[in-house]
Design a protein that fits this description.
Two copies of one chain form a homodimer.
Chain A: H1 16-40, H2 47-92, H3 94-107, H4 112-122, H5 126-137, H6 147-171, H7 176-202, H8 206-233
Chain lengths: 234, 234
């Protein structure tokens, strides 16, 4: 059997899809949960809670999905406009741009001799030069042009999926307190599981990560509950 | 008078505070607006809308604020754990890590000779070497440790400020349709202004940017309104 000696670096490289799911589900589990909890503190029936919950899920998923789409296209526009500007600067402000390349190499600890040679080589090819400036002066990577649409859908769908979890118990009862009880139980469990896997993706301790995500949800729900109780008592 | 010949690059460099305000206000203007619009399609009085709106603002600001805080501390933890790993790899997998430095320089278009010399110089200092790998292999910059807390507050407060805009008209009337009318007018105006300045910050066309942000809000509100109308008619 041939052994595989390829060096597999265990660094994080979570896919874009997972990132979108995390973004959408994080708010989707938390905000409708807290909204429903808040309303449970003020109304007895579950009709209004279901109505408000569904309106919130629709609002949140569209706002986040389209917001993600807009962010994606804006990133693309921004990249293109900066690219154009760098080509202009390389053409018309060559000395200044050369100095900026030199500054990069100096920061990385290269000797003056190698700095000069490296600057000479990079600035010898205008495309390489611009690419270098985009990445190292501006910290911009070329965005994937198909990303915005996919991202919009993934984030929106994850928000809906997340939001239906805390809302579902209210469908099965007419008593808001009863609904709240089950909503708290299943949502806190789901928030913990979600936080656990999210933490694994980012390489932090999954147990403490899961607990933190759960506690954010609990804090949001408790605050919303307290505030509506206060309003009702006025 | 001494002339200032410093080269001012007109690239975007929006401050962290502005980024936080954009994050919080973007959702804060949109989601409570759409939620209130959705409920206006199903209830006549404004009491429930105000209650749900305030519960949503509390929920959303805490979820986004604490979410921002958690993201900040996670980024810090992630950076530290990757830093530790890079020091380990530089120590124990030196040849492989050297190759990765070489690959970077190759990608930037340097000749084999300069590649070798640059690799030699960078890998001569372990701290420089690790910093180089963190930035160019992993694309990670050292996060500001005080950022997470400030960011949490700024995002949460911006969400509250944004959310009170669409909700405010409902305080002055008992008729949800009347409230909705004024809410639509002032929120769409605010969304346009917000989108206009946000677009200026990111260097895209402010007029079309403002219109897009406004249309996202309108789409979210119209969908929420339509869905609750549909539920009510069942």
């Amino acid at each position: 059997m041939k052994e595989n000696h390829t060096h597999q670096e265990p660094h994080l490289n979570s896919s874009d899809l997972l990132k979108d799911i995390v973004i959408g589900m994080s708010d989707g589990l938390t905000v409708p949960f807290a909204l429903a909890a808040g309303l449970s503190g003020a109304v007895n029936g579950t009709g209004v809670i279901i109505l408000a919950g569904i309106a919130e899920i629709a609002a949140g998923s569209i706002a986040m999905g389209l917001g993600g789409y807009l962010a994606g296209t804006t990133e693309q526009d921004h990249y293109n406009s900066e690219l154009k500007r760098e080509y202009y600067e390389v053409e018309h402000l060559a000395e200044i741009e050369k100095n900026e390349v030199r500054k990069c190499f100096k920061e990385w600890g290269l000797s003056t001799e190698i700095q000069e040679k490296a600057v000479h080589e990079i600035t010898g090819n205008k495309d390489h030069w611009v690419q270098f400036m985009m990445k190292h002066e501006l910290g911009l990577n070329e965005p994937d042009p198909t990303r915005a649409k996919k991202s919009a859908f993934n984030i929106g769908a994850s928000y809906v999926a997340g939001g239906l979890v805390p809302l579902s118990p209210y469908f099965f009862t007419n008593d808001s307190t009863e609904g709240l009880k089950f909503s708290v139980i299943i949502t806190l469990i789901c928030l913990f599981i979600f936080g656990y896997f999210k933490s694994k993706l980012t390489g932090v301790n999954p147990l403490s990560g899961g607990l933190k995500v759960m506690m954010i949800g609990a804090a949001a729900a408790a605050t919303a509950f307290g505030i509506t109780k206060l309003i009702e008592s006025l």
